[in-house]
């Protein structure tokens, strides 16, 4: 809009000088044009035309600059009817596009982004609009030159264990120097349901200014916590490059991912083959039936629905009460008639729970 106004001013000036020239042509003779006064008028007009020309050139240059996309600009290349494989194979995601969706789930070539829910068993309320927003966000950041994916294992480690090729951290950047969270999707330790159970959470945390990582791990109750321990180590070891504050970080997870977050929070990274790094300031858990309490639990927030046939809300409530009995801050939200795997809970009774979880985390910060 500013560019349009600028052109309007420029062209108005141009028209004024054209009118002046035209007027002089209508009311002067050849003899009058040769007079000193006429020559002065002509010289003035010519200078004015030069100024106008220069102004137009500047306006065009300024317009070219003003059309640059701002840092928070999000592309809209992908739509609900975009095929999943068109995203996976997009050159913007060269080397890691396959990790945006579950690597061990069968995806038909004709399947679109609106159908992602069909490859995420155990989950409910998968939001196609959110899926489209996430992949457009990723593409916008990648094409803007930001690194959005980080491998957590070396080439030697991946050569020794090829399954480690299917691991890494998707980075949803918040404010430089802000605290970080690692979000772990569930999937019954069979697959990683990141598109519904960690990417949306990480994106929302980044919108709040926090730096959020979504972990893609090796499915399995033995391998997954090892990958989370490595991810924590990776962020601590590369904190300066990543521009994150490692103090008072948090671990998040849904279903199987919540177990991972709880295990690391209670047992620490050394229990899973890494050096000993600080424990999280808070663990945020959704819909998992974990019951064990060893007395080392960090402050814990949990949420679950009463109609969850996979994770009993009574089991989760009992665990939170045990943590509180040990003198540790803990909180649970129980949502009536809500089933398993509701994610952000958009459009449900649970909508807004993530704000409560963030507040709980913030209350643990020193």
Strand content: 5-15%
Largest sheet: 8 strands, mixed
> Mean pLDDT across all residues, rounded?
86
Q: What's the overall geometry?
A: globular
The largest sheet has its strands arranged as: 1-2-4-3-5-6-7-8
Please write the CATH class name of the largest domain: Alpha Beta
The radius of gyration is 29 Å
Indicate the CATH architecture of the largest domain.
3-Layer(aba) Sandwich
Number of domains: 2
Question: What name is given to the CATH topology of the largest domain?
Answer: Rossmann fold
The H/E string reads: HHHHHEHEEHHEHHEHEEHEH
Work out the helicity level.
40-55%
Distance between the termini: 46 Å
With helices defined by DSSP (H or I, 4 residues minimum), what is the helix count?
13
């Amino acid at each position: 809009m500013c560019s349009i106004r600028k052109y309007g001013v420029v062209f108005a000036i141009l028209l004024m000088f054209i009118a002046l020239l035209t007027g002089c042509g209508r009311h002067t003779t050849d003899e009058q044009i040769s007079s000193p006064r006429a020559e002065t008028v002509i010289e003035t007009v010519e200078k004015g035309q030069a100024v106008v020309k220069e102004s137009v050139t500047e306006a065009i240059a300024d317009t070219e600059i003003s059309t640059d996309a701002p840092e928070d600009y999000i592309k809209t290349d992908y739509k609900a009817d975009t095929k999943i494989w068109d995203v996976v194979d997009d050159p913007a995601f060269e080397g890691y596009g396959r990790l945006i969706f579950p690597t061990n789930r069968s995806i038909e070539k004709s399947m679109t982004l609106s159908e992602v829910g069909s490859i995420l068993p155990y989950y409910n309320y998968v939001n196609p609009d959110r899926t489209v927003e996430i992949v457009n966000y990723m593409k916008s950041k990648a094409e803007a030159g930001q690194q959005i994916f980080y491998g957590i294992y070396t080439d030697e480690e991946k050569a020794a264990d090829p399954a480690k090729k299917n691991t890494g951290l998707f980075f949803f950047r918040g404010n430089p120097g802000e605290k970080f969270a690692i979000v772990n999707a569930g999937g019954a330790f069979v697959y990683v349901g990141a598109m519904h159970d960690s990417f949306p959470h990480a994106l929302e945390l980044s919108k709040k200014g926090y730096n959020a990582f979504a972990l893609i791990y090796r499915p399995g109750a033995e391998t997954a916590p090892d990958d989370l321990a490595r991810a924590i180590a990776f962020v601590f070891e590369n904190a300066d490059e990543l521009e994150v504050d490692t103090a008072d970080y948090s671990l998040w997870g849904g279903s199987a991912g919540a177990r991972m977050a709880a295990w690391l929070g209670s047992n620490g990274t050394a229990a899973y083959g890494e050096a000993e790094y600080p424990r999280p300031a808070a663990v945020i858990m959704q819909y998992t039936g974990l019951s064990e309490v060893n007395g080392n639990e960090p402050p814990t927030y949990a949420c679950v629905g009463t109609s969850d046939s996979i994770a009993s809300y009574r089991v989760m409530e009992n665990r939170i009460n045990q943590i509180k009995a040990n003198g540790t801050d803990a909180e649970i939200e129980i949502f009536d008639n809500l089933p398993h795997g509701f994610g952000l809970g958009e459009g449900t009774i649970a909508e807004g729970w993530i704000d409560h979880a963030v507040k709980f985390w913030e209350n643990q910060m020193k």
